[in-house]
UniProtKB/TrEMBL annotation:
Keyword Transport attributed: yes
Name of protein: Amino acid ABC transporter permease
Cell division listed as a keyword: no
Sequence intervals crossing the membrane: 22-46, 58-83, 199-219
Membrane topology note: Multi-pass membrane protein
Family designation: Belongs to the binding-protein-dependent transport system permease family.
Pfam families: BPD_transp_1
Stretches assigned to the ABC transmembrane type-1 domain: 20-217
Localization: Cell membrane
Keyword entries, A-Z: Amino-acid transport, Cell membrane, Membrane, Transmembrane, Transmembrane helix, Transport
């Protein structure tokens, strides 16, 4: 039987390689796409427009409700295993068949966008109404107010919860193993099946996730200090 130390030394490079090749890219790409979706969804939900725009608002509300009300693992299974059975003649005669990478990023992005949309919406609402009125009084348009005044402040307010969402997303990428993406957790499972040391392998991959999330937490703290350096400290 191999020694535990030898197992760790021989397995760590494989897990690290999977993290660099799959885990980190999936998390970064999904978060960027999800953040774009979140900003657009939050702005749609906050818009006072009526008429045809009400349909768009209803879609935004339904999207957020759907992805916040169902488990991420179930969403992954629906997108990867379920959509191929959605056959519509003339449109998708063979169903919607996505490769694991595309299905994973699509699901993680949509899930992240739904949660971050509420974070961004709350951050925008936290900005005093007087700032809108002051900007309008000097002739600024609504897009200008959003771009120059509201969104920069909302970004600072939403930074801690958005950072937490990204850290959670990094950990959630382990679910990608369920749709055959060879990320860190999947690699640890494969190695455990070979050396019959599941406790060692799962502890090792947990340590990798812990290190990654610790580094991200430090980065979060640094960004919070940088974005709050002009604020007056509370007495």
């Amino acid at each position: 039987m191999e020694s535990i130390w030898h197992i760790i030394v021989s397995s760590a490079p494989q897990i690290a390689a999977a993290g660099l090749k799959y885990t980190i890219p999936i998390a970064i790409i999904s978060f960027i796409i999800g953040l774009i979706l979140a900003i657009l969804t939050a702005l749609v939900k906050l818009s006072p427009k009526r008429g045809w725009f009400s349909i768009l608002k209803a879609i935004a509300y339904f999207y957020v409700w759907l992805f916040r009300s169902t488990p991420l693992l179930v969403q992954l299974f629906i997108v990867y295993f379920g959509l191929p059975y959605l056959k519509i003649q003339g449109l998708w005669p063979n169903g919607i068949q996505l490769d694991p990478w595309t299905a994973g990023i699509a699901t993680f992005s949509l899930n992240t966008g739904a949660y971050c949309a509420e974070t961004i919406r709350a951050a925008i609402l936290s900005i005093p109404q007087g700032q809108w009125e002051a900007a309008y009084s000097i002739g600024m348009t609504k897009p200008q107010v959003l771009k120059r005044i509201i969104l920069p402040q909302a970004a600072r307010v939403s930074l801690p919860p958005l950072s937490n969402s990204f850290i959670s997303l990094v950990k959630d990428t382990s679910l990608a193993a369920s749709i055959t993406i060879i990320e860190m957790f999947e690699v640890s499972q494969q190695i455990a099946a070979e050396n019959y040391q599941p406790l060692v392998m799962y502890t090792l991959v947990a340590a990798f996730y812990a290190v990654m999330c610790t580094v991200l937490s430090w980065g979060q703290g640094y960004l919070e200090k940088r974005t709050s350096r002009y604020l007056r400290p509370l007495n």
